[in-house]
Amino acid sequence: MAFAHQEKIIAITVGILVTFWASSIKGSYQVYFLDLASLCGLGRGMFSLSSALFGLSIGILSPVVGWICDRIGPALTILSGVVVAIVTYLAMMLPFNFWAFLFLFGVLAAYSLTAMTFVPLALLVDKIFANKNKGMAYAAITNGTAIGFMVLSPLWVWLNRFLTWKELSFIILAVFASVIFPACLWLCKVFPRRQFVSTVKSMNTTSEPWFHHLRQPLFILLAISFGGCGASMAYIDVHLVPLLQERFSNPNSSATIVASSLSILGAAELIGAFVIGYILRFSTPAIVLSILYLVRAISLVIVIYAQDLFMCFIFAVLFGLSYMGTVIVTSLMCLKAYGEKIKGQIFGCLFTVHQLFVFGTVWLGGLTYDWTGSYDLITWSVTGLCLISMGIGLFFYYSDSHNPSAKSRVTATP
């Protein structure tokens, strides 16, 4: 079925709007992390269990959301995420209780974010855009998250000065209910379920035992490498803001540095996704992956020693440029290695491993802070994981160079 230009514009516009505001789920938690831990009277190790569970739930719920997409279509799946977000933030306005918050944020908010972002949007883009335009369309839609870094993160930092978590939850709820919900109803009207039913029914189910690949060295190495991506992203999502807030103790300078660093990181992410996509047209994916992880490791070393705004900016630029690149390159390597028929299942399993590293980094980061009074240990640990991921990329590159007929095909140029 061909889709009109106007329908494609609607898909991109609503998609950007959804991913932009969906970023408020992680962004607001990130800035209010210390306030929430203090509110429930818990140490960072115990309270970080909420964000650890959030990351783990995303890994578990991603295939569930994919199953839902196959049956009701991407537009209705996105709408379900918005509805759950509205319910979640409505419940956030009740008297604060850690165990209730653990379920609300760790499970419901995780479903909401998963249902509003990568999985259903990928299906929507695959359906309505031609092959040559899929990559740019998907990059445009998902960069709503980067714009959220640039625009919303400074807003949360500013609001954190005088609004409580309950009051902030009302603002997030109000935008979801008054803006995002009607936009998603519009999306459902333009792209009803019936336009996706034929695709779902015609899918060629196969009895190929794709899961046997999970025991092979190729998958294990890709999974470990992707774990470095999950660990470093978790570090940014949860531990970076508290680290900067404590290092720059003056409230005014702290707010400026945190807000500026997150905005620059978002801008660099926005640019980096398109730059990596362009570079991959001419370069071997494995070597690009190694360079990205090296850049990310260097950025983390910089943040350990950063004592002024300039050094924080350098960190934000370097990390931001690599932010989405590791996901893009790993996805491409997975496609080259396993082919289209089983790439979805394999990449889903890789993403689950990615989220397991998120879980471990978030929780262990909080625990080690409680033990040592510093984020240095978790920062060095994540840096080490990035270097391991870099080494795996180099292994793929050089093993293929010495064996051009290697079955892995992960270093093939697209």
From TrEMBL:
Residues 8-401 form the Major facilitator superfamily (MFS) profile domain. Coiled coil: none annotated. The keyword Membrane applies. Signal peptide: none annotated. Keywords: Membrane, Transmembrane, Transmembrane helix. InterPro entries: MFS, MFS_dom, MFS_trans_sf, Proton-linked_MCT. Gene3D superfamilies: MFS general substrate transporter like domains. The chain crosses the membrane at residues 9-29, 49-68, 75-92, 98-125, 137-158, 170-188, 218-236, 256-280, 287-307, 313-335, 347-365, 377-399. This is MFS transporter. It comes from Photobacterium rosenbergii.
